[in-house]
TrEMBL record:
Boundaries of every Xylose isomerase-like TIM barrel domain copy: 21-226
Keyword entries, A-Z: Isomerase
UniProt entry tagged with the keyword Ribonucleoprotein: no
A molecular-function term among this protein's GO annotations: isomerase activity
InterPro entries registered for this protein in UniProt: IolE/XylAMocC-like (IPR050312), Xyl_isomerase-like_sf (IPR036237), Xyl_isomerase-like_TIM-brl (IPR013022)
Name of this protein: Sugar phosphate isomerase/epimerase
Keyword Isomerase: yes
Pfam families registered for this protein in UniProt: AP_endonuc_2 (PF01261)
Organism: Mycolicibacterium moriokaense
Amino acid sequence: MQLALTPDGRWDFATVDLVSAASAAGFAAVGVNADRVDDAAVEAYAAAGVRCHELLALVVSDDESATMASAELLADRAQTIGAQWVLTVFTAKVPPQRIQRCTKLFDDIGAGMAVEYSPLGAIPSIRDGIEAVRAASRGGRAGLMIDSWHFCFSDDTWEDLAAVPVDDIAYLQFADALEPEYRDRMIRESLHRRALPGEGVLELDRFATTLRETGYDGIVSVEVLSAELRELPVDVLVGRLYATSAPYWI
């Protein structure tokens, strides 16, 4: 199992400082937002000795022109930084052909489409996510990205999680969650009130055990979106993210 780091889009750390701290903490890979990909980022990754497992993020909407323009830009950025996957979120259900066109753009430069399912989006269940993966795979490499926060607040069961074919998993994202303050404001909970693994209410031991028992042995990317933790210095924050996540996987 390889631990990676998914950055919070609200962090204001310089890329060179983030990847250096991630490498020092023990992370093997670090994701990057597309707007941060430039020559300096490429040099920072090389100097830190970490790779880029995910580029953030393609938003697939009902606006075909905007979706395809974004996919073309992200394919270019993924090639520049050497991203393994382009994380893809859906705000609408779209024709399979549109998903395939996006996947083909990524496949042409050596990246895959990581389909994110979320109870807060247009792909709300594992079953919906697998259907999107099947459609995307007709254009190139695709897999399902399974997020512990999304799974635990979805209507999916542990049996649903255990039944995901291991070859269909792109990678995992991992975080805990504070007890929700308002169940009707779950987007806010997702963006600002996640918690360090082991410091919240999610069944992370069962999540990790279930996926291990499927035979999964790939990337686990730690993504803790927390207003409180954003106040920490980068080295302290990244060190705590690694230290609290590693016992579940390594």
